[in-house]
Amino acid sequence: MVLLVIGACAVGDDEAESFALYHLETAIGPPGAEGDLHCGPPRPVCPGVITQPPPAVVHYELLAGPEVENDGIDRPGVRAAGSIVSIPFTPTGSEAFARLTLEVARYGARDQGWHHVAVVVGDEIVAFPEVDFDKYPNGLRHVPGIRIDAGTAEEARELVERLGGS
């Protein structure tokens, strides 16, 4: 989940969609017909959905607030390279990400199963990478940003645009 950050010009924050990171298993409810967040086509995988790719849009209720929000990312630095989207953190975002992944790793160790970080853009869960508690028992510290596989180069460019990147 580590990336190199290169500065650039970008769309203003007022035109970009919101960004948030949550502890999936504690802050977001199970899939259902209603809720604050959604996931589904064109996303090939959604949390808690058995049939992949999901046959329809699935909704999720928010149970708690995010650990990393808009001020935690450097929007001008958001970039795509092929299908991969790099989202750099601000110093505040990097610290909040370290706290979040520590919590996720500790819950995973307690439950003896990997827990996940939900990456949310607007009201859509766009990714939910797991945190391996054996490999990262203290979470991920001093991480300058995250990388997300958007599926295709076109979807990556769309995600960068939604986040106000370049």
What does this structure look like?
By secondary structure, this protein is α+β, with helices and mostly antiparallel strands. Residues 1-12 have low confidence and may be disordered. The chain has three helices and nine strands, in the order βαββββαββββα. It has one domain (13-162): Gyrase A, domain 2. The chain has helices at residues 24-27, 91-111, 153-162, and strands at 19-23, 37-39, 58-60, 79-81, 84-88, 115-121, 124-127, 130-131, 145-149. The two termini are 20 Å apart. It is 21% helix and 22% strand.
Number of helices: 3
Helix/strand-derived class?
alpha+beta
Helix content: 10-25%
Largest sheet: 4 strands, antiparallel
Could you tell me the radius of gyration in angstroms?
15 Å
Low-confidence stretches: 1-12
**Level-1 CATH class name:** Alpha Beta
Q: Quote the CATH topology.
A: Gyrase A, domain 2
Question: How are helices and strands ordered from N to C?
Answer: EHEEEEHEEEEH
The appropriate CATH architecture is 2-Layer Sandwich
- Provide the number of structural domains: 1
Present the secondary structure layout.
Layout: E1 19-23, H1 24-27, E2 37-39, E3 58-60, E4 79-81, E5 84-88, H2 91-111, E6 115-121, E7 124-127, E8 130-131, E9 145-149, H3 153-162
Antiparallel strand pairs: 1-6, 2-3, 4-5, 5-9, 6-7, 6-8
Structure in a nutshell:
The strands form 3 sheets. Strands 1, 6, 7 and 8 form a 4-stranded antiparallel β-sheet that branches. The chain has about 170 residues and is of the alpha+beta class.
